[in-house]
Amino acid sequence: METFLKQVAHDLYEKLNGDFTKVAIVFPNKRAGLFFNEYLAQESQRPLWSPAYISISELFRRSSSLQTGDPIKLVCDLYKIFIQITGSKESLDEFYFWGEMLISDFDDADKNLADTDALFSNLKDLNELTDNYDFLEEGQKEALSQFFHNFSPDRMTELKQRFTSLWNVLGDIYTQYKTLLESQGIAYEGMLYRKVIDTMDVADLPYDKYVFVGFNVLNKVEHKLFSRLNDAGKALFYWDYDLFYLEKNPHEAGEFIRRNLKDFPSELPLSAFHNLNRPKEVTFIESPTENGQIRYLPQWIRENLTAEEKETAVVLCNEAMLQPVLHSLPENIRHINITMGFPLSQTPAYSFVNALTELHTTGYNPNNGRFQFNEVISVLKHPYTRQLSAIAETLEKTLTEGNRFYPLPSELQQDEVLGKIFKPCQSNLELCGLLSEVIKQVAVIYRKQSASADDAFNQLYRESLFKTYTLVNRFRTLTESGELNIRQDTFKRLLTRVMSAASIPFHGEPAIGLQVMGVLETRNLDFRHLVMLSVNEGQLPKTGGDSSFIPYNLRKAFGMTTIDHKIAVYAYYFYRLLQRAERVTLLYNTATDGINRGEMSRFMLQFLIEWEYPIVKKQLEAEQSPQGSAPIIVEKTPEIMKRMQSRFDIRVNPKTYLSPSALNCYMDCPLKFYYQYVASLSTPDEVSAEIDSAKFGSIFHDAAEHIYKDLTSHGSKTISREAIEALLKDDVRLRNYVDSGFKRLFFNIPEDERALYNGIQLINFEVIVRYIRQLLQNDLRYAPFTFVASEVPVREQIEIRTPKGMLKSCIGGTIDRMDSKDNTLRIVDYKTGGDADIPANIESLFIPGKKRSNYVFQTFLYSSIVCRKLREKGDNRQVAPSLLYIHRAASDSYSPVIQMGEPRKPKEPVEDFSRYEEEFRSQLSTLLETIFHPDIAFTQTETEEKCTYCDFKTLCKK
User: Fold this and answer.
1) Angle in degrees, CA 236, 237, 239, rounded to 5
2) Alpha-carbon torsion angle 171, 173, 176, 180, nearest 10
């Protein structure tokens, strides 16, 4: 394969007789010069004086006294002119992002030498003068007429009125803006280009010959420069193309090349460009996912890597895939050259700055002087914070365990570093100062580590810190000068966007090794073996045009860049990359996700139709290998039995007891019982602004407990109807009970501190208040009654028979409430969720299954303990277990009494538990003996519904 650059080097060497002393070779980008230099050196047997290699943008910049302005400053200057001319009260925050769009339009207008006086003239005048635009081509005139057909200045709507009012001053804004920039010696790129072409004298240019290599689409400024140099005999042109698409008219890949060859004939003959219409190995591969392409890449490289590695290229249409591609490269690659920079957004420096800006913008409330938990934790968990502060991890645990949703700065400023980080920043300047300071401190740590750990990642992270520090200082300078006067939220968005667009260049030797590159970097380069990833519609060409204030038809009429240009440019890149390659593999994925439509690029489809040679089509299939998880069985070894004894035997652990929750857990899943109660595994503490069902129930229980404590605090335990009615009328008091519950159990703050509720928390607050009302209304129907106690701990010592002898333990728990009326003691358990269960009989409470009633088992266990205690005291009251489903209690006919009975048979209310106690205790003894029997292992549940919300689901893998 003879590459395009090699052909150019040979031809140019012959034509100039090897004399390049006064020759400049101009490429669309700088990368091609490195490869070209190598080819040029091969042409001569003796040392050569190298030509100058410059890009087209460098050629313009070197010919101008103006400097390209900082993009942020350019918008700030435009804002000044905008306010001055329009008198608008619009803030820089509102103006900034469409100000960028306006500069982009000015840039495009200048690069294409648009008649800006005509373009930005009054729309009515523009309409009237359409017939006099002799300089317009027929297609442009038609586009202008079409614009006015759709946009009639005579039929005004409010939106049109706002558009025309701004449009009619755009000419003044454009003129005065350029004047302001020129007075400062700066310019946006299009303005600089236009200024150069308007004032340039080609005789003053430093080189005798300018060789333009590998250009495609030319804007009007570039075209004018080429014309002047050509007319002066100072230019040579080398166009890269192929007759395959050049001779097909229309064909978007050859659209601009046809014009260029007509205006500036190529130095190379047509015969050099007959490559694409020859047999090649072309393969189209369909992948079910983006990740599937990455997993296939190592195999492709092992099979296709050329002996000279630089002749093989991996081209990424989606540059976001760079990181997974780098991780997937196989070991047989000796050298690699990555033409794209590593995205700054994928480094810890970016996430650190992002976390800090979030903390001081959305994460801080200046009205109450508090930070928000999520933003604080993001900073404390960041590895850079952990490196800077030894107590960051401890502080994070303290906040998590204490449910500190809205910590004060004083709580967080535990050392010097945390004092700086959590000092509220009142302005953008203070925030810039903080960011600069902490980045500098992290850089010092890396500098100390560099001697011991000078690996590639450390180098990358050090460079990312330097890049971040530079960007932050840019913002600091503009803020200090008063140029950038914006709100903190806009500052955060702008800083994030600038950092997201930044990248860190890789160091290496570009002319050796496997080439990993984006589509734009492939210009002028040829490869023998080529694989392109993500050749999807939406990635090639990229979807969506750039935003513009200038409507499409006006852009077209005045010769400015349109989406059609961009599609043609990408078509050229695609076909040009294929034309000299010998083996081409194009992969696309079929997953529909975001902008990816899950279909091959239009260029692949077009090539499939146009190319006369066979194309191999393949599909990647993800091999489904189900993870066969073996059942988990934990045998009760002597060590485990010893642990169970130390955990549950009151002779070893006097405070232990088996709660209804523990026994329910065993019946639901013996293995879960082992994990939670024997191995003592637990889920990590988490803080969530949302209230889960357990916390919801706890707050309700707390409010109910304190209500009845207060109702009985005057000495009498009798709850009267009048007392409940008075409380139901006192809405403020009811709300205070719930508020106190939130403070104690959710926010963990003192009673005298005000709780700060968010929207979801307020909804939960209102629901709990409503449930408290329903509880009181239900009790109003039951009143008068004697309130015995609430949140009552009950225990009963038991003996459990095991093959090794008796084990002394305890059963018990906490009863939500006990009340008495008409010789009946009610054992009441509050439930804020779920549905009332009707067990068939006592035995059904001990048989594992989907419909086994945990709630009834719990209440019956408490009732059995209370029954025995009453007998021991000679108390002959009946014990009635009750489940009070608060969300069901609004109905006048609702009763909390538990019922039992077979399906489709009459149900019997359990109003005297002593009738069922003996059978219940018999079943309970059997259950306890099973739990502590050494020959019965802990196994997984057979009821899969029990696994849905299990904390140990990932460990069990059932």
Assistant:
1) 165
2) -140
The pLDDT tens digits for 508-519 are 677 788 999 999
Residue 100 neighbours by CB distance under 10 Å: 18
pLDDT in tens, 74-115: 999 999 999 999 888 888 888 888 889 899 999 999 999 998
CB atoms near residue 78 (< 10 Å): 24
State how far the Cα of 236 lies from the Cα of 259, in Å rounded to an integer: 16
Please name the residue ranges forming H helices in 30-87.
31-43, 56-62, 71-86
Across all residues in the chain, what is the average pLDDT? 88
Contact 728, 783 (CB under 8 A): no
Q: Tell me the whole-structure pTM to 2 decimals.
A: 0.76
What does each C-alpha distance from 70 to 118, 183, 350, 478, 487 come to in angstroms?
29, 15, 21, 10, 20
Which residue type does 177 have? Answer: Y
pLDDT in tens, 271-291: 999 999 899 999 999 999 888
Torsion angles phi and psi, residue 8, rounded to 5: -65, -45
pLDDT value at residue 125: 60
pLDDT bin (cut points 50, 70, 90) of residue 586 is very high
**Which distant-in-sequence residues (6+ apart) come within 8 Å of 931 by Cβ?**
666, 673, 800
Is 693 strand, coil or helix? Answer: helix
Between β-strands 878-885 and 824-831, what pairing exists: parallel, antiparallel or unpaired? parallel
Cβ(356)–Cβ(379) under 8 Å? yes
**Band of residue 445 on the pLDDT scale cut at 50, 70, 90:** confident
Structure tokens at 553: 């038809």
- How many CB atoms within 10 Å of residue 397? 12
Judged by DSSP in three states, 234 sits in coil
Q: Within 13 Å, how many C-alpha atoms sit on residue 307's CB side?
A: 0
Alpha-carbon distance of 631 to 633, in angstroms, equals 6
